[in-house]
Design a protein that fits this description.
10% strand; mainly alpha; homodimer; DNA-binding
Chain lengths: 121, 121
DNA sequence: CAAGACTGTTTACAAACGTAATCGAATCGC
DNA sequence: GCGATTCGATTACGTTTGTAAACAGTCTTG
């Protein structure tokens, strides 16, 4: 089950909420830069629902939408797919590439080292 | 300039070659699991050419295709986009996520540590 | 009760994608 | 020389994506 870029924006809105949201609430949480009309948000909600990525409960005449897949699970799947596709399943080349692009600051480096240290114990 | 999944397969064929390739040669380098007909490969070559991702030189009545963007450059861009989109531009959460999925083996961990050590110096 | 205001659903439509067949020109084998 | 083969170019066609308008119920409010 694949989630497109535009659909992901809607998922983020749902993931960032601690409760289920109505379509209008979702629309209000979409970054304004997207410049979406409410209709577009509704389309995304329908498609995501058809894909099984979200569910809804009826509250009167409205629906309350919530994510059906956890962000962690989705992000994990996509990460795996990504490193498989471009780095042969190895994370180190990705780290090397981003390091070369100066995409890592000291804080990030320290965080990664901490994770690795934890892993080895 | 975005390269689709299917197109990427063709790019990999070109990147993995030290010289320019004909359409047939590209087709032969596509993993058999894809089960592509030669026609499909030709379509990909046309589209990639239109996108400016590859170039060709005419050799008699045939074309010799080669990548116009380096793999490193492309992969760097996509990596950046990926961590921006799903991890707020930070690499550490990605490492954490893959670590939790046991997607890192000792060798990979050592390689990453080496890269980070190098970075800090 | 009638006129809006809101919902979700259906329909729209162009661009991108995945996969491929067809076509017209060039070339190669005989 | 001429048919078969081989190229790139053109055309095809269903699905997905991005973006949205139209529509049909249901509430609300005057």
């Amino acid at each position: 089950m694949r989630i497109s870029d535009a659909e992901l924006e809607v998922m983020e809105a749902l993931w960032s909420s601690d409760r289920a949201l109505t379509a209008t609430e979702v629309a209000n949480r979409i970054p304004a830069e997207r410049g979406w009309s409410i209709a577009t948000v509704k389309t995304m909600l329908s498609r995501l629902s058809a894909k099984g990525a979200i569910t809804y409960s009826e509250e009167g005449r409205r629906y309350l939408y919530s994510a059906a897949v956890a962000r962690d699970a989705y992000v994990g799947r996509e990460s795996r797919r990504f490193v498989d596709q471009l780095f042969g399943g190895r994370l180190s080349p990705l780290v090397a590439r981003l390091a070369e692009e100066d995409a890592l600051d000291d804080e990030d480096i320290a965080a990664i080292e901490a994770i690795l240290k934890e892993l080895k114990s």
